[in-house]
Specification:
By secondary structure, this protein is of the alpha+beta class. It has a domain of 218 residues: FAD/NAD(P)-binding domain (3-Layer(bba) Sandwich), CATH 3.50.50.60. The chain has twelve helices and 20 strands. An eight-stranded mixed beta sheet has the order 6-5-14-15-16-13-17-20, sandwiched between helices. The structure holds arabino-flavin-adenine dinucleotide (FAS) and P-hydroxybenzoic acid.
């Protein structure tokens, strides 16, 4: 098989780039290890930056997001028994975020690929990248018992943290930066009315909690748990009890509980791989960087990678201009690191740390006190949360 761009990974990053390129007549193929059903069974991000929403519209995939997604102009931080609202609209100069689940967004992208007869190959096993530093890279993969080959101009590694692409960059070239947090997030999805119309990030001595949603009939909640916890150790009842303990009474009293339809524990890490380019290979999304979900930057960091790669490919194929490709890694990383900083800051401010000393706890309290006493601090939080410019 021959194509211009071979994209490894049929998650949101890979599918969005595939759709954008196809709309401009740039031939591409997506190789996805799992089935579509498996990809769509994963429950992940819930908050889209303004820039991500714009990209979805540019990709002609924004119609259901605009119809079913919710525009949110603020969120709450619960601490010390009180609730303080972060007015995103006011402090970001009029911007907002869209609350719309990654699962539905990925479904919209798959359906758009179907409408364009896009080539998304599922069950692509043992993907291997070859000749990345030459002019004629190629990718091999196994489909059943058959070994297949894709000859291409460029390979996009959009295969997530556990993918093969980043690992195809020689050890002497790749630099990795990582911080692992001593806790995870236990998440529950339930067909219940959300406890709050806006998200609530809760700092509590028992641990962090987050009240989010997917719609007015689908709630998404998280509580911080020790890394040693196993999801099977948490009954629904135990989850709801612990969540309520971490929220102000005015909130916990009105909590509507119900059976979990999804329950999982996600570890938290900050991670960046540099460079995001190696020869004809370009990394995008979780393949290159991971953030703790506290700042809702995970999926949104992928958006700017895709935006930069899309325009770089347009420059190459439509204008013979490779400046976008040559500048991609530095430009993407500049924004990635700002998302890393923000996600780290939100995580350090709102979670309990098993080894924290009293001084650390006072700093956390002071961080919150300063935030809600300073317009400059609120503007800084708001501009990061709604998404820094691409
Ligand atoms: P993805 O990991 O989504 O997609 C990569 C795709 O590549 C997958 O479909 C995988 O099957 C495929 N693949 C992997 N290896 C392959 C191979 N060798 N060959 C072929 N295909 C291969 N972000 C938030 O903003 N908020 C959240 O609340 C949040 N919660 C999360 C919870 C969990 C458990 C995880 C893991 C992530 C969460 N994230 C969250 C981050 C998440 O949304 C990612 O940012 C987002 O999935 C990134 O999308 P992709 O870069 O497409 O990577
Ligand atoms: C979610 O709804 O899954 C969600 C929202 C905001 C976050 C993290 C997760 O910061």
């Amino acid at each position: 098989m021959k194509t211009k761009v071979c994209i490894i990974g049929g998650g949101p990053s890979g599918l969005l780039l595939s759709q954008l390129l196809d709309l401009k007549g740039i031939d591409n193929v997506v190789l996805e290890r799992q089935s579509r059903e498996y990809v769509l069974s994963r429950i992940r991000a819930g908050v889209l930056e303004h820039g991500f929403a714009e990209l979805m519209r540019e990709a002609q995939c924004g119609e259901r997001m605009d119809r079913e997604g919710e525009i949110h102009e603020g969120f709450y931080i619960a601490h010390d028994g009180r609730m303080d609202r972060v007015d995103l609209h006011r402090y970001s100069g009029g911007s907002s975020v869209v609350v719309y689940g990654q699962t539905e967004l990925t479904r919209d992208l798959y359906e758009a690929r179907d409408r364009m007869n896009g080539r998304v190959i599922h069950h692509a096993e043992d993907v291997k990248l070859h000749e990345l530093t030459g002019d004629a890279p190629y990718v091999t993969y196994r489909s059943g018992d058959e070994l297949e080959r894709v000859d291409c101009d460029f390979v996009i590694g959009a295969d997530g943290f556990h993918g093969v692409s980043r690992k195809s960059i020689p050890k002497g070239v790749l630099r990795e930066y990582e911080r692992v947090y001593p806790f995870g997030w236990l998440g529950v999805l339930s067909r219940t009315t959300p406890v709050s119309p806006e998200l609530i990030y809760a700092k509590h001595e028992r641990g962090f909690a987050l009240c989010s949603l997917r719609s007015q009939v689908l709630s998404r909640y998280y509580i911080q748990v020790p890394l040693s916890d196993k999801v099977e150790e948490w009954s629904d009842e135990a989850f709801w009890d612990e969540l309520r303990r971490r929220l102000p009474e005015e909130v916990s009293q009105r909590m509507i509980t119900g059976p979990s339809i999804e329950k999982s524990i996600a570890p938290l890490r900050s991670f960046v791989a540099e460079p995001m380019r190696h020869g004809r290979l370009f990394l995008a999304g979780d393949a290159a960087h991971i953030v703790p979900p506290t700042g809702a930057r995970g999926l949104n960091s992928a958006a700017s990678d895709i935006h930069y790669l899309y325009h770089a490919m347009l420059g190459h194929y439509l204008n013979g201009d490779d400046s976008g490709l040559d500048g991609y890694s530095a430009k993407a990383l500049a924004r990635v690191w700002k998302a890393q900083r923000f996600s780290w800051w939100m995580t350090m401010m709102l979670h309990t740390f098993p080894d924290s000393i009293d001084y650390d706890k006072k700093l956390q309290e002071t961080d919150l006190a300063y935030l809600f006493s300073s317009e400059a601090a609120l503007r800084s939080l708001a501009e990061n949360y709604v998404g820094l410019p691409f």
